[in-house]
Amino acid sequence: MKIKDGFVMRDVAGQTVIIATGKASETFRGMIKLNKTGKDIWQLMENGLSVEEIIGNMHIKYEMDISKIKIDVERMISVMIEYGILE
Amino acid sequence: MDEFIVRFADVYIKIHSQYTYMRNLCRDYIVDAGRFDMEVRAGSNYLSEMRIEESFSDEYCESLSIYEQIAKKLPYYRCFVFHGACISYKNKGLLFTAPSGTGKTTHIKLWKQCFPKDVDIVNGDKPIIKIENDCIRVYGSPYAGKEKWNKNRSVLLHSICVIKQSNRNNIKKLKADEAMEYLYHQIYFSKMNRECGMLSLELFDNLLTRCPIYLLECNISKEAVACSFEGMIKDE
Asked: Which residues of A touch B176 (CB under 8 A)?
């Protein structure tokens, strides 16, 4: 499971924004806004980490309960699947 | 096949077109230049892609497609196409924006009625914004909506105003993050490749953080103009 090619991320007016370019823009036309943890999850996915590895990383970084992090990560991934961002 | 060079926002563009409509549309922007920065022609499927309404003629579809092809490359020149109506009020660029049918044209028409000597309409529908290091300018283009109100000139962007229909008149300044929601839909983002996507986002960030942006709730009246005037010009 990886993020399709062509998504670009940048901070715009203090918020993290993502749009699709190239082939990905044919199926995804919107703009994604991410909060800080969303940005971390996205970047870890871009770096090719597995879901388990992402959860592990987030657990170390935020020192939060693993079950809560798991819910957040899985929720974000299911949204990404729903919008055709992953392949 | 016709070909000629136009200058939009100080970018020299060589246009190849099949129909004379395109040359006529661009007549005020045609230049006699020995060089050009980009070269465009309509996209290969322009008839099917651009015929959003059945009444659109082939030549009109070609012209729309050519503007899209130009817009795709404009970020390389720190420019982008913006959906809005731009007027110059005493050489201050006021850019009114809203979804089609909200009343941008009506509102700028009222500005012209209220300040006939001080208002010049730069473009009624799709001007080009150029983000420079020290200033932001709005340029006219021949793509100017049904009324075709356009001038081959530019003006320093003073402020942007999002228009919303309402019974009463009220104006407030938006924070950059609030303005993002409104303006995202009004900008042509070039998604041709990663580089253009990143450039588009950078230009968008510049626009949001450097230009004052207002939300005007208004009706169709001269009071609505008084309200936007008070908010954008008088309160500086």
From this structure: 13-14
